[in-house]
């Protein structure tokens, strides 16, 4: 494939990854920002989102579109409730101590993986996308003294992939609006700034924490539901997603939602674009080292203001 | 007894007990304990950073793998004997730790975790990329005749056990000695309050770099020994999972204790081994055990011992 | 030392133990040899089954388990081995080489297994085999890796039930070059298994006058694939793909989306879709493409009685799915290897007059002496030729075309197509 069309294809693929990553990472960032908790089980909430989406779509009749919408609504709520329950039964009792919460969430990770393996099984299972038309994309070429449009071999995307990009933008805008303009958002921001002060002002910090943990997990689950028609639900899918969203959160600057989103775009697009220039594994190595060096030379992340 | 004597009695006693077990353990547990001692050495290396200097790394598998591959590749491709190969492995780990330390120590906290994770991921992918020499994920066998160290066949159960015990004992006493020396005290000062350590005039960066290099070297020694004792080198040992393991062992056994890493590795090994005999869902049991332990024994096993009985435990 | 003196000493140990009247508790504390020789001959033969119950191999592990359980049930119904019942001792290895080696030790020294069996993933085999060799525990792998025949392993590791990747790949090249095209682009996982495909197929297709025009290795952690497909050269006549792991369905689906209506010929190893329903959404484009199959998943019009027998015993319908759940698709192209391996163990133990662990060396020699295995209920995939020197079996390979959403066999590669010169002679190693 020519260079131009290839770059466009890689950018489109990168944008899909970026959208999903931004959703998932903003959940992780929210939890870290407000609660100062590194949630290692975050990838498993993403996995649960995908697995439950398969479950819901295979239970609900009325065609793939109806089933998918049902999953989009029901699944994040279930996962969010589960996470909130885990917060109240386990994390609260650890007093959110950083090291202990890491061990506890690793434990949670094992539990969620194993329970999924025992109930859902080891197979990768597909969900039918609500719509999925292949769109061949045109490219412009300068030939015979004029600009001509043509359809290069393989340059295409699907309507569903475009939908994922749009859905990512819409959901993130909603989250941003909630943080900025709603009462819940205000409580969260107050707790993030100073939880003791917030407590003194009568904010139910414990309930805010449970809510934040639930919303964070819900966002990961939402990302899982959106990705499952493209990639299949599998009980080990959380691991790599967790690594990527960790990277995004740190690069973006801890607890900064805007930074997280920009970083997701950066990571998603660079993953696609670097693969244009290098052999695949070498591209992964370069992308990984790039992240490491960004942090080495800018430890607060690209958009963080200070090391907290 | 003074505290120093008590400490000496406990640790020498542990090594003596492990030595005695060589002669009485049934074959299966004998083999397991040899493995656990090598893994515990890895955890001891990890504990130097996490337990004594307060540096949480998520990429220690790269040091373990550097040791393993430094050793195994020099046997496979350069025809080295085990002793120099072991040294190559340890030196690879030390060199890698120096480079990683110089770069990663510019960061702190969560950024440090991610930077170490990324470097480890790079090492893992590089092993795959160099598949022509490493055979990638499949790895390769170090044949029995290549594992004869000074006339001792390391594939013999008793030799393997004693070799593992020697490695474990050296690293145990080395770290015990380290934390009682000035350098070790600086480590602890940094763990407790880095800013104050700096104000007191210590070169914090240099001390942390020492910590990373010592930790990486011990981990590499464990990796090189593991390959040599069990005859296999593979990329699996460089995956994230093998960076998480020492973290778990140390946290379970007790951060900042000398015997904690051993107790943690032993506990996790038998937890998985015994529960996998009862049910297929042993990961579930391991997960629940982690949550329960962290809720009710937050200091880890040795930490609880220190809190309840042996306040002098180092 | 001759074998007769070995078995004599084992007997004397046993009688010594009996006269001493040691209890079971004391026996547990004794070294390895003592506990083994106290085993009664009427006790069942214990086969340690190293199962990928968790980790990336879990989908295979489930079907390897079902197949093995069915074969053991049939063997026992027919009177067992040497008059003794057979018992599978299953341990999960987590698809991890470290745990795999630990499981081998457990079989040999804790759970009193006579042999170990059943591993698929190459890294687990390579990580476990040194321990099996040291413990002198016969280790029957069902892995299709080239590690056994390459000479990397040891005298106690045998692969008598499934062909290896070198043989499979080599047998495919004539068909590909004669029927699909000469210019091939290969898409494969960027690790040892994929590299074997790359190296062996490149050599084999060049021998046929074809060439590999593009190589696209995919990193193992990858979850999306479209961005790599533009690297496929335009001149490509045939795409050769082989992928393993949970991402396989995404891979195949995205391949279809990439090409749309104008695809080149596509030839894949069924590994890319093992345990995946061909009727999954997005796979419609596979119509008219070709697959290597170790054993045809869909019952063919000329289905043999042996294949019927095999399917019925495990509970698999004519589409290769569980009879209880048509969505539960088997790993049909690989799992016959477990079945056939268990029958090889049976044949070997009978030929060796196997009575207990003291006869393990005799068992290895008996298996090495096997040369041919006829197409039968014991070997439902086809007739086999076993090479006792390289410890590797050779058998037929199937190439199927997707017709109306089903895989129909269009070519059967002969045993000879997959033969290659020996790379090792394990029989020269000490037992």
UniProtKB/TrEMBL annotation, chain A:
<keyword id="KW-0813">Transport</keyword>
<feature type="transmembrane region" description="Helical">
    <location>
        <begin position="208"/>
        <end position="230"/>
    </location>
</feature>
<feature type="transmembrane region" description="Helical">
    <location>
        <begin position="276"/>
        <end position="297"/>
    </location>
</feature>
<comment type="similarity">
    <text>Belongs to the binding-protein-dependent transport system permease family. LivHM subfamily.</text>
</comment>
<keyword id="KW-0812">Transmembrane</keyword>
<feature type="transmembrane region" description="Helical">
    <location>
        <begin position="242"/>
        <end position="269"/>
    </location>
</feature>
<feature type="transmembrane region" description="Helical">
    <location>
        <begin position="68"/>
        <end position="90"/>
    </location>
</feature>
<keyword id="KW-0029">Amino-acid transport</keyword>
<keyword id="KW-0472">Membrane</keyword>
<dbReference type="Pfam" id="PF02653">
    <property type="entry name" value="BPD_transp_2"/>
</dbReference>
<keyword id="KW-1133">Transmembrane helix</keyword>
<feature type="transmembrane region" description="Helical">
    <location>
        <begin position="45"/>
        <end position="62"/>
    </location>
</feature>
<dbReference type="InterPro" id="IPR001851">
    <property type="entry name" value="ABC_transp_permease"/>
</dbReference>
<feature type="transmembrane region" description="Helical">
    <location>
        <begin position="102"/>
        <end position="122"/>
    </location>
</feature>
<dbReference type="InterPro" id="IPR052157">
    <property type="entry name" value="BCAA_transport_permease"/>
</dbReference>
TrEMBL record, chain B:
<keyword id="KW-1003">Cell membrane</keyword>
<feature type="transmembrane region" description="Helical">
    <location>
        <begin position="85"/>
        <end position="104"/>
    </location>
</feature>
<feature type="transmembrane region" description="Helical">
    <location>
        <begin position="7"/>
        <end position="29"/>
    </location>
</feature>
<feature type="transmembrane region" description="Helical">
    <location>
        <begin position="209"/>
        <end position="235"/>
    </location>
</feature>
<dbReference type="GO" id="GO:0015658">
    <property type="term" value="F:branched-chain amino acid transmembrane transporter activity"/>
</dbReference>
<feature type="transmembrane region" description="Helical">
    <location>
        <begin position="247"/>
        <end position="272"/>
    </location>
</feature>
<keyword id="KW-0812">Transmembrane</keyword>
<feature type="transmembrane region" description="Helical">
    <location>
        <begin position="161"/>
        <end position="179"/>
    </location>
</feature>
<protein>
    <submittedName>
        <fullName>Amino acid/amide ABC transporter membrane protein 2, HAAT family</fullName>
    </submittedName>
</protein>
<feature type="transmembrane region" description="Helical">
    <location>
        <begin position="278"/>
        <end position="298"/>
    </location>
</feature>
<dbReference type="Pfam" id="PF02653">
    <property type="entry name" value="BPD_transp_2"/>
</dbReference>
<dbReference type="GO" id="GO:0005886">
    <property type="term" value="C:plasma membrane"/>
</dbReference>
<dbReference type="InterPro" id="IPR043428">
    <property type="entry name" value="LivM-like"/>
</dbReference>
<feature type="transmembrane region" description="Helical">
    <location>
        <begin position="49"/>
        <end position="73"/>
    </location>
</feature>
<dbReference type="InterPro" id="IPR001851">
    <property type="entry name" value="ABC_transp_permease"/>
</dbReference>
From TrEMBL, chain C:
<comment type="similarity">
    <text>Belongs to the leucine-binding protein family.</text>
</comment>
<feature type="domain" description="Leucine-binding protein">
    <location>
        <begin position="44"/>
        <end position="405"/>
    </location>
</feature>
<dbReference type="InterPro" id="IPR028082">
    <property type="entry name" value="Peripla_BP_I"/>
</dbReference>
<dbReference type="InterPro" id="IPR028081">
    <property type="entry name" value="Leu-bd"/>
</dbReference>
<protein>
    <submittedName>
        <fullName>Amino acid/amide ABC transporter substrate-binding protein, HAAT family</fullName>
    </submittedName>
</protein>
<dbReference type="Pfam" id="PF13458">
    <property type="entry name" value="Peripla_BP_6"/>
</dbReference>
<dbReference type="InterPro" id="IPR006311">
    <property type="entry name" value="TAT_signal"/>
</dbReference>
<keyword id="KW-0813">Transport</keyword>
<keyword id="KW-0732">Signal</keyword>
<dbReference type="InterPro" id="IPR051010">
    <property type="entry name" value="BCAA_transport"/>
</dbReference>
<keyword id="KW-0029">Amino-acid transport</keyword>
<dbReference type="GO" id="GO:0006865">
    <property type="term" value="P:amino acid transport"/>
</dbReference>
């Amino acid at each position: 494939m020519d260079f131009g069309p290839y770059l466009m294809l890689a950018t489109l693929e990168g944008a899909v990854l970026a959208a999903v990553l931004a959703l998932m990472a903003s959940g992780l960032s929210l939890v870290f920002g407000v609660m100062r908790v590194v949630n290692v089980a975050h990838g498993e909430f993403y996995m649960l989102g995908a697995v439950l989406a398969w479950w819901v779509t295979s239970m609900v009749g009325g065609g793939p579109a109806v089933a998918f919408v049902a999953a989009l609504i029901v699944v994040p709520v279930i996962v969010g409730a589960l996470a909130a329950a885990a917060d109240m039964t386990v994390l609260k009792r650890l007093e959110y101590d950083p090291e202990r919460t890491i061990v506890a969430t690793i434990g949670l990770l094992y539990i969620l993986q194993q329970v999924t393996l025992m109930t859902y099984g080891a197979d990768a299972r597909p969900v039918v996308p609500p719509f999925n038309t292949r769109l061949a994309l045109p490219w412009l070429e300068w030939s015979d003294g004029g600009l001509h449009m043509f359809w290069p071999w393989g340059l295409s995307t699907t309507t569903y992939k475009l939908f994922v990009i749009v859905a990512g933008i819409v959901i993130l805008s909603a989250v941003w609006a909630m943080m900025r303009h709603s009462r819940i958002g205000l409580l969260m921001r107050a707790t993030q700034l100073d939880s003791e002060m917030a407590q003194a002002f009568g904010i139910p910090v414990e309930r805010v924490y449970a809510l934040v943990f639930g919303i964070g997990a819900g966002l990961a689950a939402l990302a899982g539901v959106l990705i499952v028609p493209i990639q299949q639900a599998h009980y080990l899918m959380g691991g790599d997603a967790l690594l990527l969203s960790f990277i995004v959160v740190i690069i973006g600057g801890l607890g900064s939602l805007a930074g997280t989103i920009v970083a997701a775009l950066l990571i998603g697009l660079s993953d696609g674009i670097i693969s244009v220039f290098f052999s695949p594994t070498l591209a992964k190595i370069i992308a990984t080292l790039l992240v490491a060096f960004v942090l080495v030379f800018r430890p607060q992340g690209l958009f963080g203001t200070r090391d907290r | 007894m003074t505290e120093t004597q008590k400490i000496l009695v406990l640790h020498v006693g542990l090594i003596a007990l492990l030595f005695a077990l060589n002669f009485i353990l049934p074959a299966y547990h004998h083999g397991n304990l040899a493995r656990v001692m090598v893994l515990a050495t890895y955890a001891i290396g990890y504990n130097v950073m996490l337990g004594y200097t307060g540096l949480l790394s998520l990429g220690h598998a790269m040091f373990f793998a550097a040791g393993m591959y430094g050793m195994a590749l020099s046997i496979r491709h350069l025809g080295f004997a085990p002793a120099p190969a072991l040294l190559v492995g340890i030196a690879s780990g030390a060199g890698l730790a120096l480079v990683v330390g110089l770069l990663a120590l510019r960061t702190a906290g969560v950024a440090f975790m991610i930077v170490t994770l990324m470097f480890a991921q790079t090492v893992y992918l590089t092993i795959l990329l160099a598949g022509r020499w490493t055979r990638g994920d499949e790895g390769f066998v170090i044949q029995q005749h290549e594992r004869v160290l000074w006339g001792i066949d390391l594939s013999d159960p008793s030799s393997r056990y004693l070799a593992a015990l020697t490695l474990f004992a050296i690293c145990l006493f080395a770290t015990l000695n380290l934390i009682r020396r000035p350098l070790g005290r600086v480590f602890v000062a940094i763990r407790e309050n880095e800013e104050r350590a700096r104000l007191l005039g210590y070169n914090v960066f240099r001390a942390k770099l020492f910590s990373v290099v010592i930790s990486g070297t011990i981990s590499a020694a464990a990796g090189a020994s593991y390959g040599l004792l069990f005859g296999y080198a593979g990329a699996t040992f460089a995956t994230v999972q093998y960076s998480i393991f020492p973290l778990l062992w140390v946290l379970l056994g007790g951060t900042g204790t000398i015997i904690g890493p051993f107790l943690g590795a032993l506990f996790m090994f038998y937890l998985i081994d015994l529960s996998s005999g009862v049910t297929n869902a042993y990961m579930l049991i391991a997960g629940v055990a982690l949550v329960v332990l962290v809720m009710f024994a937050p200091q880890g096993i040795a930490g609880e011992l220190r809190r309840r009985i042996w306040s002098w435990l180092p | 030392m001759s074998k007769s003196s070995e078995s004599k000493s084992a007997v004397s140990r046993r009688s010594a133990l009996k006269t001493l009247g040691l209890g079971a508790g004391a026996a547990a504390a004794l070294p390895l040899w003592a506990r083994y020789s106290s085993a009664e001959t009427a006790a069942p033969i214990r086969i340690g089954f190293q199962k990928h119950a968790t980790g990336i191999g879990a989908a295979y592990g489930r079907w390897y388990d079902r197949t093995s359980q069915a074969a053991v049930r049939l063997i026992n119904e027919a009177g067992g081995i040497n008059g003794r019942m057979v018992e599978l001792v299953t341990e999960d290895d987590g698809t991890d080489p470290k745990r795999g080696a630990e499981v081998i030790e457990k079989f040999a020294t804790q759970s009193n297994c006579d042999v170990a069996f059943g591993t698929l993933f190459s890294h687990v085999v390579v990580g476990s085999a040194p321990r099996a060799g040291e413990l002198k525990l016969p280790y029957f792998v069902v892995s299709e890796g080239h590690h056994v025949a390459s000479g990397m392993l040891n005298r106690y590791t045998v692969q008598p039930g499934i062909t290896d990747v070198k043989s499979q790949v080599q047998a495919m090249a004539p068909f590909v070059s004669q029927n699909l095209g000469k210019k091939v682009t290969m898409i494969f996982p960027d690790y040892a298994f994929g590299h074997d495909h790359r190296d062996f197929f490149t050599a084999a297709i060049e021998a046929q006058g074809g060439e590999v025009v593009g190589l696209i290795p995919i990193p193992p952690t990858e979850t999306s694939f479209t961005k790599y497909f533009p690297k496929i050269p335009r001149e490509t006549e045939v795409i050769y793909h082989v992928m393993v792991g949970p991402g396989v369905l995404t891979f195949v689906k995205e391949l279809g989306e990439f090409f749309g209506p104008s695809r080149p010929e596509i030839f894949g190893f069924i590994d890319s879709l093992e345990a995946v329903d061909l009727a999954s959404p997005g796979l419609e484009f596979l119509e008219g493409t070709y697959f290597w199959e170790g054993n045809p998943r869909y019952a063919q019009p000329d289905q043999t009685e042996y294949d019927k027998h095999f399917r019925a015993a495990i509970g698999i319908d004519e589409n290769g799915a569980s009879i209880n759940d048509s969505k539960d698709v088997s790993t049909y192209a690989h799992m016959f290897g477990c079945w056939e391996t268990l029958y090889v163990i049976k044949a070997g133990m009978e030929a060796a007059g196997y009575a207990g662990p003291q006869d393990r060396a005799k068992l290895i020699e008996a298996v090495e002496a096997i040369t041919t295995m006829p197409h039968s209920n014991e070997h439902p995939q086809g007739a086999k030729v076993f090479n006792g020197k390289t410890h590797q079996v050779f058998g037929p390979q199937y190439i199927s075309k997707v017709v109306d959403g089903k895989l129909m066999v269009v070519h059967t590669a002969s045993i000879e197509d997959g033969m290659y010169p020996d790379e090792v002679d394990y029989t020269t190693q000490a037992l």
